[in-house]
Write a structure and sequence with these properties.
The protein is an alpha+beta fold and about 160 residues long. The chain has four helices and seven strands.
C-alpha cells in the first residue's frame, strides 16, 4: 500500500517586484536613454539606442530567468528549478535543514518583499536563498514543521554540546 504524502507541495516563485528591486538602476538607465534618444538634435542618439537595446535584452533575460525559478517544498524535499536555456534542478532533503534566516534589504522593505535563507548540512547546497517572497508570507514555520516531521520519519536526531 502506497503512503499518501502528509503535506501538499508548496510552490513558491519570486514575485515580479523582485525584478524591479534587482534591476532598478538598469531600468532607470534604459528609461533615461530612451528619453535622451527621443530628444531632437541630441548627439549619438543611434549609439544610445543600441546601448539601450542591448541593456533591454539583458533585462528581458534577467526577468525571464527570475520568473522561471521554482521552489517546490514537499514533505521530504525542497526542490529548486532554475534556468532558461539550460534548466537545473537541485534537491535538498528537508531533514538536512539546520537553520533559517529572513532578511529584507531597504528596497525589499519598500516593496514588502523578503528573502529567506535556508542553511543545511548538504554539501552541494549549504545555504539556499529563496528570493522575492511576499513579506507577510509565513513560509518558515511551514518548512520548519516539515523538517521536524522529516527528521522524525527518517530517525534523524540532533545532538548538541553546550
Amino acid at each position: 500500500m502506497q503512503q499518501k504524502p502528509l503535506f501538499q507541495t508548496i510552490l513558491i516563485t519570486p514575485h515580479w517586484k523582485q525584478f524591479v528591486i534587482n534591476e532598478l538602476p538598469l531600468l532607470l538607465l534604459c528609461i533615461s536613454g530612451l528619453i535622451y534618444a527621443g530628444m531632437d538634435g541630441m548627439p549619438f542618439t543611434e549609439f544610445v539606442l543600441i546601448i539601450v537595446g542591448i541593456i533591454s535584452l539583458m533585462l528581458l533575460y534577467s526577468f525571464c530567468y527570475l520568473r522561471k525559478i521554482k521552489y517546490l517544498i514537499g514533505s521530504e524535499q525542497l526542490v529548486v528549478e532554475h534556468g532558461i536555456f539550460q534548466r537545473k534542478v537541485d534537491y535538498l532533503e528537508l531533514y538536512r535543514i539546520v537553520d533559517f534566516n529572513e532578511h529584507q534589504t531597504f528596497m525589499q522593505q519598500l516593496f514588502s518583499m523578503k528573502t529567506i535563507t535556508i542553511f543545511s548540512g548538504d554539501r552541494s547546497t549549504p545555504s539556499l536563498d529563496i528570493v522575492g517572497v511576499i513579506a507577510n508570507n509565513q513560509i518558515v514555520p511551514m518548512i520548519r514543521e516539515r523538517v521536524i516531521i522529516s527528521r522524525r520519519n527518517n530517525s534523524i536526531y540532533e545532538i548538541t554540546n553546550r
